[in-house]
């Protein structure tokens, strides 16, 4: 991705949702813009749901650890199904996210700044380290053990 792919909507400070245009790598030279909604629910404070808003096709939702996204802004984060890492191009930072399922592995790039601002908002809502005190354990476990992907 290069700086020509700057289509992002800044997060609203009164919302737990962030809409971003991610750029899916099709091959080394081709990219596909994919609109995505990041949603944070303080009742399930360990996870972020990431729904791909596909124009022609089913919506697909992945559940990603909030800490995996946050750490991925600074260094390689995650193992297995979800991996996130930063890339620095001059003054601009982008974030790469690789999602792996039984069917495919998909690689996305996105602007780091709106994701970082939105994650900071979620940490003001539920500070790091306080998640378990607020966590509905059954709901959290269902999200973590639910397989990571949901199709609508």
From TrEMBL:
It is found in: Cell septum. Keywords: Cell cycle, Cell division, Septation, Sporulation. Pfam families: SsgA. Belongs to the SsgA family. This is SsgA family sporulation/cell division regulator.
